[in-house]
Design goal:
seven-stranded mixed β-sheet, 18 strands, 15 helices, alpha/beta, 2 domains, Aldehyde Dehydrogenase, Chain A, domain 1, 456 residues, single chain, binds nicotinamide-adenine-dinucleotide, Aldehyde Dehydrogenase, Chain A, domain 2
Length: 456
């Protein structure tokens, strides 16, 4: 196992020079990152095509455009985010002033997954840079072309004592986790999230865990069926379902099930054609292991649509399974592929109960115009975040902190939330020396009596 002690120490030494805390330095680093992404746009599109057969459209929107927008937003707001935040002073502290400094942690370790291999490594990096940290990225080993290119871009753009990318698999990740870093930002599976938190606990290192889970998508009886079908087909099958916030399964009101499924079929055909296996713009499954796991679900319930596969290219048609229950294997864990199981319901408590029996979802989607139904679902179910009358879209707003809760994750990022995630909030009280309130001292006559007037 390699030893990353030297790299981390080098970054700590650089961090301690204070250079990374300078706002101009941070802004310049973000500008350099933006230029590097633009310069390598075509290489990135090619690498993503090689690794996952991502289409140019999907790759640009979900891996490049979204990062350029995040950098633009951060550049625009960073000066104001980084200012000390003045807060009020209570009567008991009269004479003093109080403020909160956003202080970088130091060396941040970013471990990322394969499904959006560039975006999910660089988006947290934007927050780490903005907050003034050094960073080490460990991208996924399952998308080797993109991860190699990412390492090349980082090496070309930044000195390694500031930002570095380390290539490798589980062992590399574990070797890095054996070292003492100042922050760990992990995106990946629930199972590995537990390993990360355990490793972090040895040094009491703060963590953000961006995990996954089964995200429900509820289509109520009053939903705009055509639009719902289109938005669900898009959110589920983009990247062949390999999206952490993709609708994992559908809960459809029984009165509209038939009509909805007809529209869903139309929407899927419109997006991917009659023969999705022949569609060169349709994303492939990342590995044989993931492909085999997904294929094992294809005989669950009844096959409504899709189901064809091609092993040579690791591709699976957009597939819809009906007559599914929570007892089917496809309902055990996050699917993370182009298979959409459909459960039906007749009353809201049924859904609420069904979801309560399982870990907190990362996302939840609800299609209804009815305010009462919206409130009921939002009020009764704990989940990371989501949309009403859409899927996945909340993820792309810099004004909405993105993250899970409990099993689906800890902490959040995007926009200002990224800056806050990578900043320690250092609270400072600046006391006056012009007078000294005497009651706090135990030798003051009647001190306690007077204190009680204030602390009631
Ligand atoms: P993963 O957990 O297998 O791997 C993620 C990273 O952890 C990789 O870099 C990998 O090398 C490393 N790793 C794997 N096993 C490890 C171990 N035992 N010890 C230390 N490091 C280890 O996840 P994945 O398969 O790459 O990604 C898919 C999962 O990620 C899904 O569950 C998905 O929901 C989740 N995800 C979440 C988000 C989010 O933002 N919440 C985004 C994308 C993916």
């Amino acid at each position: 196992m390699e030893n990353y002690n030297e790299l981390i120490n080098k970054q700590k030494t650089f961090f301690n020079t204070g250079k990374t805390k300078d706002i101009e330095f941070r802004l310049e680093a973000l500008q350099k990152l933006r230029s590097a992404i633009k310069k390598h746009e075509n290489d990135l599109l090619k690498a993503l095509k090689d690794d996952l057969n991502k289409s140019e459209f999907d790759a640009y929107i979900t891996e490049i455009g979204v990062l350029l927008e995040e950098i633009r937003f951060t550049l625009k707001h960073l000066r104001s985010w980084a200012k000390p935040e003045k807060v009020r002073t209570p009567l008991t502290h009269i004479g003093s002033r109080s403020f909160i400094l956003s202080d970088p942690y130091g060396v941040a370790l970013i471990i990322s997954p394969w499904n959006y291999p560039f975006q999910l490594a660089i988006a947290p990096l934007i927050g780490a840079i903005a907050a003034g940290n050094c960073a080490i990225i460990k991208p996924s080993e399952l998308t080797p072309r993109t991860s190699e290119l990412l390492a090349q871009i980082i090496a070309e753009t930044f000195p390694s004592e500031y930002i570095s990318a380390v290539l490798g698999g589980v062992e590399t990740s574990q070797a890095l986790l054996n070292e003492r870093v100042d922050y760990i930002f992990f995106t990946g599976s629930v199972q590995v999230g537990k390993v990360i938190m355990e490793a972090a606990s040895k040094n009491l290192t703060p963590v953000t865990l961006e995990l996954g889970g089964k995200s429900p998508c509820v289509v109520h009886e009053d939903a705009n069926i055509k639009l719902a079908a289109k938005r669900i087909a898009w959110g589920k099958f983009i990247n062949a379902g390999q999206t952490c916030v993709a609708p994992d399964y559908l809960y459809i009101h029984k009165n509209i099930k038939r009509e909805f499924l007809t529209e869903l079929q139309k929407a899927i055909v419109e997006l991917y054609g009659e023969l999705p296996l022949e569609n060169d713009d349709y994303t492939h499954i990342v590995s044989k292991k993931h492909y085999d796991r997904l294929c094992s679900f294809l005989n669950n319930g009844d096959l409504f649509l899709g189901g064809k596969t091609r092993e040579r290219e690791l591709v699976i048609e957009p597939t819809v399974l009906t007559n599914i229950t929570w007892q089917d294997p496809v309902m055990e864990d996050e699917i993370f592929g182009p298979i959409l199981p459909v459960l039906e319901y007749s009353s809201l408590p049924e859904i609420i109960e069904g979801i309560h029996e399982h870990p907190n979802p990362l996302a939840l989607y609800l299609f209804t115009e009815d305010r009462k139904v919206q409130e009921e679902i939002l009020h009764h179910i704990t989940f990371g975040g989501g949309c009403i009358n859409d899927t996945v879209y909340h993820l792309a707003s810099p004004h909405l902190p993105f993250g899970g809760v409990g099993n689906s994750g800890t902490g959040s990022y995007h926009g200002k939330a990224s800056f806050d995630t990578f900043s320690h909030k250092k609270s400072i009280l600046k006391q006056t020396n012009t007078f000294d309130i005497p009651f706090r001292y135990p030798n003051m006559k009647n001190g306690l009596k007077r204190i009680k007037l204030f602390l009631k």
